[in-house]
## 1
Amino acid sequence: MQQLLHPLCLTLAVAGFSLLLRPARRHRRDTALTALAGVYGFCALSFLVSLEPTWIHLGEVTNSHSIALLASFACVIAQISLQPVVLAWWILPPDAARRAARTSLLAGAAVIAGLVLLFVLLPTTGPTTPQTFTARHLGVGVYQAYLGLYISAYGAGQALLVVGCLRAARRTDEVWVARGLRIVGAGALLTLGYCAIRLTALLAAVRGDAGVPAAVEHLAWACADGGTLLVLTGFLVPALGVHLVPGVRGWLRAQQQYRRLGPLWEVMHRSIPAIALQPGRRPTRVNLPVWDVSWQLYRRCVEIRDGQWALAVHLEPAVREASGTRHCGHGLRDGELAAAITADQLHAALAARHGGRRPAVPAEYADSVRHPDLRTPEDDVRELLRIAAHFTAAARPSHRH
């Protein structure tokens, strides 16, 4: 069970640590984010050294066959000490958060110091594995003290995490944060089952009773690793909900907008190839961009506007007047009217360019009156989307002939 669940926990811990490290500049002003990255980093290390190949390799390299045990326990205590720091900076005022964080870190350092001292007193052993070490040494008094200190600190830390998460979930107005904290609390509560089984086995060993049955041992690791998976997942939920989900929505929206501008861009590009900022590449509606979608969308808007500028010399006043009369009759007003007229002007200008016709006095685009209101790239995208919709709609009847 341990060797099955540990890799899953390790994978999630490494993924969370990598995700949290990406906004490196935010760590300078966000103590909770730094502490949370530490939670995932120490968790990943604890699971890494608990894998049997790593355990054996560390023993061979250091000539201490149980050094991985100390490393694993120390990393877990460091993780447990950082979890209250995250909650403190999330829910307490700065001064109170600093005091709570300092207390938690000092308590964790004291426990790690005690583990190191007891580890030095442990009897030397031959090669072991994570599965055999505890079974082999559970009857040794020093190891009983060592394990008792670790389980007590671990259980106390997880119990505090349960209480802190429930309180924080009630205080926050962020739905994603509340959901994540409840998942963390449920995971921490599940790990207390591991603590209960381990303490029961420890007390039985002190009394000289029989060891823990294999089924109960599997249950202990299921509680520990299953609870840890929930804790790691829960801490990631706010990051996913607040940052990743809006990012995915923005990416999908940019993809949709890029595709909707495709017909207008393609017609312009065929007539005026020079509008392409990268002539060697011709992204189309079928070949949608995957990376830097927002930049690709912005570039497509710039290219369409460049095409408009190049076609301006072919704008005929009669086209604008006739289009305005027709669309006003259809009930269009304001921005929608300007977009529809501009789309008709583009169709006519493309045909005039192809035929080599230029009016003596070119007209202006109907949407030019709206340019002062387009203060951001998003405003320009929305305006061009309206023009593109009317442009595509106007082109459909011609495709049926």
## 2
Amino acid sequence: MPFGVSTHEFDHLQFLPVLERMYRTNRIDEIKNYASFSQVDRFRKELETLEAFGIHKELDIRLDQSQDSKTAARKLTDGKVDIILSVSNAKIQETYRDGQNRKRHQRKIRHAFIESTVFRTNQTLAYDPHHPPHCLNCGGQMEAESENYFCPYCQSHYLAEAYEYKMARFFIEAAFHNFHYALFFFIPIFLMAILQVKGILSEWQIGLFSYLGGILLAILFFLALIKGLMAIIRHQGVLHKIRRHDPHFSGEIFTTRLIDSLARHPEILLAGKNRQAEMSGVICHNITGLQFERYERKGSLEIVECRGKVDALYLEGSPGRVRLRERRKKITLRMARNYGTLTPVHYLPDQFTCPHCGSHQVSDYEGGLVCRFCQTEIPVERIDWVLYNL
């Protein structure tokens, strides 16, 4: 089931009014009920970045009346999670205003794709929701707390797997993005037609140019085909090497992890900019066309080199004089983790068990993790992928 099967199991359009209110109120409280921990964290960092430049965002989404029939969704199982990829058509208007409500930037997309990815574990729940288990830290009887569990004795919090669908990725894509490049194919045809009408080129010359142009296009097509096949072979080769010890490695979880890492380290996307004279900021929206290029073992680490295109909003200047622009940038990154580490089940957020004292606690994914009970410091690369050589 490489491309999944069509499904109507989940309606991702329920996110839209919540997102509009989130940007209008500049608060993330309501979206927490719909989104995963990592996606909520990305929304929080986006709002914080905009606030640092004195900017607020207005999101206007207009769906067609027949939108229900135009929403496409595919369901597939990848690694340890069930995934639903949903796409809907809409008209989008994003407006960025400063503190005086002056418009600083606006993006209008008449034909937009609203794309979302929701995850749900397909593993057996670690805890029975009707009979809360005993605390793994102190042995006390835990109490149910919404979908999660809470120990009233040692204050430990436990989070069950995402047994309900939670939004793990959300982004807006222009349906005809980069379509203008197709115009380059029509420019030579248009010029030859003008030259023929004016009598500068004869009919046999037009035929000769058409023949040579056809040969050139055929060569370019086969070169692009060979390049694409080589990229697929490299990508599958890296996947095979990772899955030798991690058979349930999830490419979707890896992509989400990479987007999370860029949201926490936006300076990677600002490399080479002069940030002494003015403030610079970036909001990473999405990564497209992610391909694995190379895999290597270095000491205890396994390192993956990957390439893709990052869709981001760049901000420069200062509050009151900020400049904003959308940009798609090619980027090459390396991610690393300890060899033998397994892809974690999709928790909200992920959890880990201390290897020294056995305590069970929530991971915050910021720097080295310190056990709250025995104070043992645990490098994040022993739990999940991290950016390598920033």
## 3
Amino acid sequence: MSTHPSPPARPANRPSPGPAGGAGPPGTVLHPFRGIRRSASALSRDRTPAFYVLEQHRGDTLLQRGVVGALDLAASHGAVLPHEHVLAAKVRAQHRITALVGGNPEPVLLVCRDARATDAVLRRATASAPDTVVTGADGIRHTLWRLHDPGHQRELAADLATRSVLIADGHHRYAAAWELRRRRGGRPGPWDRLPALVVDSTRTPLGLRAIHRHLPDLAPREAAARAAAVADVEELDPATRRPPRPGELILVGDGRRYSLTRPRPEPLLRALAGRPGAWRRLDAAVLQCLFIEGVWRPPAGARPVRHLHDGDGEPCSGTLVLLAPPTEDDIWRLAARGVRVPEKTTSFLPKPPPRLLTYHHGHQSRGIRLMGGPRQDRAAPPALTAVRAAPDPPSTRPP
């Protein structure tokens, strides 16, 4: 697996904060910042630093409530728990996005638990009229409030400073931010911070889906036959549409469905040699190491494995492998132990929308020009000139 260098390792003598924060330093350090907000027809540049409260609704159903602030990378290092590996190519892609925008067009998604004081501040903020409301093409309504009261800012920051957070989405952006900071040679500046949406999953639980694999050049009957050498294989009724259970992989294609369970201990141990022991109980790791890199090893010139968030359909060719998602508790436990899972193992939802709130490096200390705005002192970056609320293209998710 090709991985990009991660942020500096947590010192061995520093205890990791638990999911609810508390015992050991450090905590999550979040700062207000000057955001650039997108509405349906314009961009708004905030002149004073604020936290931003974000709610996402589908109809009358609240999907998510959280706070967006500027994460202090160095001060929060020991409290931020990554859980997935990153790929160097995607980190480089994120650098290109940061250079084009002049900052970060969307926050990383962080999860905390049972942050009661933070929740109380957010509830007070959302009782007032919002500052920005945008409805996406998928029908989800995104609502922003500026939290600019200094007392409320201190109360929220103090609560988060006692807590650890799990990176739910944004591993590549987080790694790219650390790399940019290193490239600046320790010179202080806005690149020392990264916009982050912190959500308390105790109050508004996130959805957690598996990311499925599509092997376009491997027929399902052949995949099942090879897998039978190292695991139990059962052909299912083609009409069966149930999702896989934990510990099970389901192969789909050519009108057939197969269940793969109970991999043999010896082949599994060989396939996972040198990997964390916890990977033996992680379906995505077993699929990657035992099957994709082992018994299904694609020949030279084969089309690459694709990662799919939607596993409902029949593939046009090859084999679709469906997985069951891990639980959030599983991910917390692994991350707290420093264990990272293979890339594209989890998909937490909903994600913050791109370009709704931009953290622009130059705007933290001086103005920029917005389309149709009053006198400013520098031109807007290209990514800030599109102001209509058209459906967003898929964000480049090096996160």
